[in-house]
Design brief:
The chain is mainly alpha-helical. The protein has one domain. The protein is built from 9 helices and 7 strands. Helix 1 packs antiparallel against helix 6. The termini are far apart. The model has no long low-confidence stretch (mean pLDDT 88).
């Protein structure tokens, strides 16, 4: 498949333009937030008046975490403080965004006396939907593209302004992620949700599945940063996240855990 389009969808004025990456992130937030707002579990919490605040804090947490892990994994690309804070120039790690939300959002919920685990469960249902839509923006932008391939399942960038290598067929890893994340969304909503009985189970399951998605897709990504001979930096982070979430899932499901207190704050 040939992709002649660049990351700028609509020039506005001077340096200002509508970029594919930002557009699809915005669409992902709007669509997933809308579904979450109308979810029966969310309505049962009676916190509609705090919905915008929760979404805003989560977005900021995702931006901070995503940028921090991106800078940590690619320090040579961000030599100055300006480069590190120039968010408008792109550069985010999806795993970093997940970690940021996992750390910052629960702190905000506790301050507001909102049940933490039930709300995280509700958010976890639609987080992979948001990620799947956002990855389409990555496809148009050319970031996160795959390694060169001779496979029929490939994509060739021809526009000079993309972040991808041009005129070489590469794995469409952004589409791999979109398909897998949308599959995780359907799995959580249609299959796993009806069988969960304890607060926190859905959230832990989402973290485990999202981590595995990144772990496997990373084998075909062009921007891998190897640690050793086999795994990349992000694959190791994904394995740590997956292991942590599986342990938490076991504790929540089979033990009398201290986390039960934060499910009813």
């Amino acid at each position: 498949m040939i992709l002649p389009y660049g990351p700028i969808l609509l020039p506005l004025y001077g340096p200002f333009a509508i970029h594919s990456y930002g557009l699809f992130i915005a669409l992902g937030i709007i669509i997933s937030a809308r579904y979450m707002y109308h979810n029966r579990s969310f309505k049962a919490l009676h916190i509609d008046h705090l919905f915008i605040d929760i979404i805003t804090v989560s977005i900021m947490a995702g931006i901070i975490g995503g940028r921090a892990l991106e800078v940590l994994s690619n320090p040579l690309y961000y030599p100055s403080w300006y480069d590190r804070v120039a968010l408008w120039e792109g550069g985010f790690s999806a795993l970093g965004s997940i970690i940021g939300v996992m750390i910052i959002t629960p702190l905000f919920l506790r301050i507001k006396n909102i049940p933490i685990l039930p709300l995280l469960d509700c958010a976890a249902l639609y987080a992979p939907l948001f990620q799947a839509i956002a990855r389409i923006g990555c496809l148009f932008s050319g970031c996160c593209h795959g390694t060169p391939t001779d496979s029929w399942l490939s994509i060739t960038y021809t526009h000079y302004s993309t972040n991808a290598i041009c005129n070489i067929a590469v794995h469409p890893t952004q589409l791999y992620s979109t398909i897998l994340l949308f599959g995780i969304f359907l799995l959580l909503v249609l299959v796993i949700q009806p069988y969960t009985k304890k607060a926190g189970q859905l959230f832990c399951t989402y973290i485990a599945l999202a981590s595995l998605e990144r772990f496997f897709v990373d084998f075909w990504r062009h921007d891998r940063i190897f640690i050793g001979d086999t795994f990349s930096f992000h694959q190791l982070i994904a394995l740590i996240l997956c292991s942590f979430s599986v342990c938490m899932l076991y504790i929540i499901t089979y033990t009398r855990h201290p986390f039960s207190k934060i499910s009813s704050l």
